[in-house]
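Hi all, long-time lurker, first post. I run a small reading group and we've been trying to get comfortable going from sequence to structure in the token notation. Rather than ask abstract questions, I figured I'd post a concrete chain and ask someone more experienced to write out its structure so we can walk through it together at our next meeting. Sequence below, copied exactly:
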Amino acid sequence: MPINIPKDLPATDLLKKEKIFVMDESRSNQQDIRPLNIAILNLMPEKEKTEMQLLRLLGNTPLQVTVTFLHTATHISKNVSKSHLDTFYKTFNEVKEFRFDGLIITGAPVETLAFEEVDYWEEMKEILEWSKTNVTTTLHICWGAQAALYYHYGIDKYTLDQKCFGVFQHTVQESTAKLIRGFNDVFVAPHSRHTSVSVHAVEEHPNLSVLSKSEQAGLFIAISNDERMIMVTGHLEYDAETLSDEFKRDLARGNDIAIPSNYYPDDNPNNQPLNTWRSHTHLLFSNWLNYYVYQETPYEWA
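-- Answer (accepted) --
Happy to help. Here is the structure in token form:
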């Protein structure tokens, strides 16, 4: 089934080249189908890359999905044009009277700041609170996961001595959980962050469960007991080259950055990195859409 996206979105041509079935709003409006309505709060600086990564995954299931992109009104994005935001994005104020079947909150390059120091934290709190009543299920990624754990459950992040940067091995903790159905007992996933969250604090919280963790990278996937809040601290959505792009960017800036762990063949940045996590990425997103969005959302919101 197709993914419905705004007409003329730049990612459309690339998705079509990858044989992802897409249609624009004008065609989807002619079909008598109740699509899943998914909002994406895109906090990443290179928004168009993140759009492509997430749309590729949302468009690879049997379910028809309509996507609404959101951006913060209280922060000015420097890496995307105003015209792109004006054309393809909405602010929270424009959608807060609506209900969505699912919400994705991405990571953001603000993790070294205390939550209260982030210039859009007040707006973020309003969105997180709104999601409790207006969204069936929310998938939080990286900083978005840390923000959710802090706001909803009072679990703060802490700064790492060294950036968690690379592709790390993870183990499944709850093999019967629908979200990770089909996962190998051991799998790999990318991380790129300067902060972390205590696995013990999440395990001890009465309203949370740990579905996956890593000896090297710590907490990976946590879920609320009512299964409406899902927190993923890494970046399964990343392309094969994303960590490499971040590494070369930081080198160009003169930052003290180590080579991503377990990433380049022979640990040589001149070698082409391989995507060794793709199958689990598609499993995570298809399981989320099927079991937590499609199976749980009402046909008509009351």
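A couple of things your group might point at:
The longest helix spans residues 278-294.
The domain at 3-158+195-239+285-294 is CATH 3.40.50.880 (Rossmann fold).
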